[in-house]
Amino acid sequence: MPAKDLSDPCMTCKEAESSVFVRKRHLCNDCYVQFVSHRVFKRMEKYRLLRGLPKTSPCKLLLPLSYGLSSSVLLRLLHHQIEDLRSKPHAPAGFTLDVIIIEPSTISPSSPPDNERFELFQKQFPLCTFTRVPFESIFDFVPDIHEVLSAYVGSNFTDDSSLSNKERLNAFRSSITTATSKADVDTTLMNRLIVAFAKKLDCLGVVWGDSDNRLAAKTLASAAKGRGASVTWQVADGMSPWGLEFIFPLRDLFQWELQSYANLMPELNHLIVADEKPSETTLTKNLSIDELMMRYVTNQGEKYPGIMSNVTRTANKLQSAEDRVGVPRYSATHANGLVPAPECLIFDVCQTMRT
Amino acid sequence: MAPSCFHCKTDRAVIIRPKNREKLCRKCFLRIFEAEVHETITSTSLFSPGERIAIGASGGKDSTVLASVLKTLNERHNYGLELCLLSIDEGIRGYRDDSLETVKRNAQQYNMPLEIVGYDELYGWTMDQVVAQVGKKGNCTYCGVFRRQALDRGAARLGIKHVVTGHNADDVAETVMMNLLRGDLPRLSRGTSIVTDSAASDIKRSKPLKYAYEKEIVLYAHHKQLDYFSTECIYSPEAFRGSARTLIKDLEKIRPSSILDIVRSGEDMAELVPSEVKKTSGAKSAEEPAIGGCGGNSSNGRARGGEMSEMENKLTGDEAALSRETEIKMPSDTTLKQKLIKTQVMGKCERCGYISSQKVCKACMLLEGLNRNRPKTAIEVGIDAEDEEGSSTLMRQMEQVQLGG
Lengths: 355, 405
What we know:
heterodimer, A: alpha/beta, Rossmann fold, 2 domains, two-stranded antiparallel sheet, 48% helix, globular, B: alpha/beta, 6-stranded mixed β-sheet, 10 strands
């Protein structure tokens, strides 16, 4: 049979026309999907093969889903791994996946309630268990949040415990003035909710959908917020101070690579809620530190993708000292005699609660 | 009506502190700035009574403020320090000759002795000549390596074991970000410490202004009417405003405390650097200056575009190579054990006697390259073309006698 005459063959299989150019290689669609899957496959080895874990039953992992690109792609990839495992007769027990969704409409009033999407996701990924919780359920899952709010006295906030949970949370969140603190408090609260939920389900760990860019931005943002020491669990794989393993299986993939992957899966792509693009015209001083860093990593990443992923790798090399991890300290803001940023307060109160 | 000072409540506030936006009068600002530097010095026990200190002075705002503040504090709190100024003359006409004039005036104003160490007398090359030879690209490497040794040699000449430099909080924060971007763990582990001792030299360096904001240093210099020089090195115009620097300026707009937060993160992260990486750091620090040009405390761009793309290419290359990697088993583990660890041993450069991990120190290596290519017809005042190699070696041998003695 004569060799196929291809103008630009895939560099891996050499049997199809290449369609994606990734990391200096021209790949066809199938090989690209393979490329993405493999990068996540490698990261999940420990849990698929239950390395150093009891082999009798599958380990339970929790995946927080935002309906956004990264977490949806991660769900697709891990679901596929589970399918694969279950189809083999003598496969190890592997892992099971619980999915938690913090109802977007309870986080931001701009996202309308979306029951349909929730059902579509469930239909698409039948091997996972889905749970949807409102943001204010943090009061039920994390009881000490009550005290955190009562202890926090902002310039325009006094906690009123007679209000409903929803109103109380909203009053607290809207009392925070700067974009950075707002974003920070929301992330902290959501993380605590997710962690508490994972503990309730008796999960071994949480799989986060952070892409390489996101992790690099997180590393730089943590440093900028005076919490550089937390990268050992916020960016690196391993034990978190909450006693759960944090796993970041998308750490070897850039955002745009995830997008190209999603584009090849129409059934997945139409489920994904596109990220709100931060407006280019926003004044720098009105951005949150996280947004600034994401913008920096995205802009610089176009020219220097390797350097950005090297940031993530560097953060991964830092060693967590058991006793130091999880003791986030006051930021220098406090040292300067300024009002402590609310996120520090939450951390600190939590710290006192634990000890 | 203008608001009154946040502290004394009597005088009119003329300054909004960049650090926390407090409104202060001139007197209170100067006093608080000095008190904070005093706090840094006492909390880290930076100086001992009777210690002789050389202030690395460039004539720029940072080192001028450092000299002024140290003099004030030394008198106010009886540190008992003997202060003197130490300047390096890189031999850059139109930049250093003018800034040295400033330093000379400072020496009189502050009544401090001044020592100037020139690249030409130490190495037989001025930076102007180096640039004529190697071009503008990469000349900062020479300048950085030379400066490190020159400061040590200058201090040794004065018989001083402690050099203070004007690095400020912005500089330190920038270094932290740069090292994260470059993935340089050894430097991340030592960049933030206030004192940098190194195995390679018995002269310690410290940065008493490491918690002071650049903007406040400028304000201090302005309100104290200090005499300083504000032109940037003329050999750095091609250096684009360092990526990290831009980022830090943006962060400062969002949250002014970010700069100190980054310094804090840097200090915390330094503790988390694995010890096997840390070990090699002390030895290396004496030899290599940080990448990104001017290792002094002027505020020009640190990272050249070239360095970022060079590193990017290397990283992509590494990744491509990774897929071609094959695992090779060693025949037996006895051979493995013998070769296992090669530790860095500090010795002396066989040419100049400066402490080095290699046979020949970095400065001598660079000099060798320069001298090899020096046009034989070059005209120099005072030194014949044939003698020049001999003369710079002689000069360095004399330095060795002083260092050793």
